[in-house]
Amino acid sequence: MQATINPQDILKKHFGYEQFRPLQARIIDEVLNNKDTLVLMPTGGGKSVCFQVPAMLLPGITLVISPLIALMKDQVGALKANGISAAFLNSSLDNKEAEAIVQQCYRNEIKLLYLSPERLNATMTGLLTKLPVSLIAIDEAHCISQWGHDFRPEYTKLGSLKKQWPKIPLIALTATADKITRKDIITQLGLVEPNVFVASFDRPNLSIEVKFGIKKKKRIEEVVHFIKERKNESGIIYCLSRAGTEEICADLKQAGVDAAFYHAGMGSEQRNKAQEDFINDRVKVICATVAFGMGIDKSNVRFVIHNNLPKNIEGYYQEIGRAGRDGLPSETILYYSIGDVIMLRKFIDESGQKELNQEKLNRMQQFSEANICRRKILLAYFGETLQNDCNNCDVCKHPRANFDGTTMIQKALSALIRTGEKIGFNMLIDVLRGSHKKEIIEAGFDKIKTFGAGNEISFSDWQQYLLQMLNLGLIEMAYDDGYSLKVSEFGKDLLYGKRQFDLVALESAPVYIPSQKRDLLTSNTTDLTDKLFDYLRGIRREFAEKENVPAYVIFSDATLKEIAQRKPIAISDMIHINGVGEFKLHKYGNRFVKEIKQWLRSKDVRAPKADTYKETMTLLNAGYSVEDIALTRQLQVTSIYSHIAYLYKNNSIESLDSYINESEIDRIRKAVKETGETKIITPLFVHLREEVPFHMIRLGLAFMEKAGEI
């Protein structure tokens, strides 16, 4: 008797894997049990296996509805390479080729038939009624929902499938759908009590980086350098416009990079050649609009670069997901500018779903301007929670430092109001920087009080600060008034002194990082910085080898260079260095400070002596708890409390309310009165039956001394 073939046998035989990925086996079981199913699984997560394996086990044919010719061609080619009979019907075939496939279907020689939505609608009353359909799979199912990021009207007719085959299981699959889109997919397709499977959207092998306001020339230089450092690695560069793909491709070719471009305006032959060259590694880099990539199974894409801001998070996530599908480390970089935001909002104003698309763009902007782990934001958008920071995005690698930006914001808002709120970003920056351009003089803006009030800040830095103000709601963009800027009611409160506001410090603008960063060395030590950097790399390597992690996980080169440049000789100096968060300060801070002090002594460089009380004060102001300060400085908790008592008596701390309450002070006051002791703590500790800790007694005495009681 022949043994029954199970899904795992199919997986091993045709796909070469011993085990299913998470959720795949459960999904396949539900499909084989005739259940409608909705699957949300990230790009590269193995969605196709969820219907391809059941197709091999079910008796008839599986219909696969897919939106793109390229997607069908890739999947059918891969299935054939795995020994599975598959075919597609779409507009790329001539009548003779299409008829040959139809005849194969009639002879039960095809297990999976891929169709475009248009071809499906055209054959619903002909070919399909004669086929023994056992399963229907709808790929890129988010296209059916008007709430999805890639709504396609032709998908709306797919709701008739359940009416024609009410007893046939239907599996809908997508890599990107928020909760409202998932609900709409179920409704539009008429799924009957479907099982919904949501795989983890976390792709920890992808690094995530966002860069804002980098001018075109420098951006091209960065991208060329990035690609040339990664010889023989494949990557995709996404652009907002067709012209943009051709332009950046030409720039890359001129710089010696092997590149091609791809967009919907090209002839089909050109597009197919560009795609085939990329898939087969004849071209390493392809510059494309978002028309490229859906369903492309190229697993060794090592980087995805966005040359412009995507219009929503769903699209962005799907596009970066085309990197590292083999699970190996891969990189994603997003460049964007104010111009991208203006252009996308213009598109939205002309779209049919203005409110929805505007909200999705807002979320994309918030992600791009975020100061917390970017992966957390991405996963949260899809309903998934990441407990810890990913340590593989630019925010985690270079923690942001905040500063009181009230004065800077007031300058910008004041200048905006004084110009009549009729100007945009660039002219406002020109006014703040004191530009004498013709249009500034003609408008009389050189006569206003705030002309040149921000001339110490670079143009690109002003762009970034103004975008922060826009995202914070301090200024608004009037799209119906020539995209001019307006001061919001919220902004007016700040302008007129009713509130304060923090901004994120930029690496290029250290002048706005709090002035507690001190001049550590009186002599010119620029020539020593490179040597110290090399020395500190050795210390970093020790930690990396001990923890079995790459060196950049300890501190990035940028952070290490800043340490070498700043030469911190106290923990309180380390907290202001970009890339040194609280955890790393605890873990590595003391060792690096110690090594720097010893290294400086070996070079006969005199450094100012650290003030232990000021160090504690700096950490308190940074929000550290007493216990954290003790841990960071490698001191006893009682020592930190003695610092607090000293700082209070010397008016550096206004109140002790956070550390001791009135009833505790009363007990200490009574003990002082009964013992007559005002200086030595031990007699008071004994008198209080050892119930009040030493540090509390010290704080109580400090309170009484400052109040003139002792």
Characterize the structure shown:
The chain has 710 residues and is an alpha/beta fold. It has five domains: 7-198, Rossmann fold (3-Layer(aba) Sandwich); 206-397, Rossmann fold (3-Layer(aba) Sandwich), CATH 3.40.50; 402-512, Winged helix-like DNA-binding domain superfamily/Winged helix DNA-binding domain (Arc Repressor Mutant, subunit A), CATH 1.10.10; 526-621, HRDC domain (DNA polymerase, domain 1); 636-706, no CATH class. It is 47% helix and 11% strand. It has 32 helices and 17 strands.
Question: Could you give the topology of this structure?
Answer:
Layout: H1 7-15, H2 24-32, E1 37-40, H3 49-57, E2 61-65, H4 69-81, E3 86-89, H5 95-106, E4 112-115, H6 117-123, E5 133-138, H7 161-164, E6 170-174, H8 179-189, E7 195-198, E8 206-212, H9 216-228, E9 234-238, H10 242-254, E10 259-262, H11 268-279, E11 285-288, E12 301-306, H12 313-320, E13 330-336, H13 338-349, H14 354-368, H15 374-381, H16 394-397, E14 402-404, H17 406-418, H18 425-432, H19 438-442, H20 459-471, E15 475-478, E16 484-487, H21 489-495, E17 502-504, H22 526-547, H23 551-554, H24 557-566, H25 571-574, H26 582-602, H27 612-621, H28 626-633, H29 637-649, H30 662-675, H31 681-687, H32 694-706
Parallel strand pairs: 1-6, 1-7, 2-4, 2-5, 3-4, 5-6, 8-13, 9-11, 9-12, 10-11, 12-13
Antiparallel strand pairs: 14-17, 15-16
